[in-house]
């Protein structure tokens, strides 16, 4: 859990993913299209801590464990949460408040 929190606090936008997850790809694309450059951690490519971080994310309530999105060091949720925020217009403002995007 400490590793997840540490990584999540190092950048304005952080996404924990798996390389084979189509929703992870979609969420990353959404952030890129909004002008953000999130830190992306692919758990299946991290042989040292990937499994440990996946369990920590499940402990936060992520089910499935990825994608897990943090903005401004705070846990936002999974793909459905991020898409809901985007549809209601608040995702862009969250990214601006965290200084992940500038406009």
TrEMBL record:
A Gene Ontology term for the protein's cellular component: cytoplasm
Stretches assigned to the Glutaredoxin domain: 14-76
Keywords attached to this entry: Cytoplasm, Redox-active center
Any Pfam family the entry gives: Glutaredoxin
Keyword Cytoplasm: yes
Cellular localisation: Cytoplasm
Keyword Cytoplasm in record: yes
Signal peptide feature range: none
Family label: Belongs to the glutaredoxin family. CC-type subfamily.
PANTHER family named among the record's database cross-references: GLUTAREDOXIN
Protein name per its UniProtKB record: Glutaredoxin-C11
Species in which this protein is naturally found: Cicer arietinum
Gene name of the record: LOC101500829
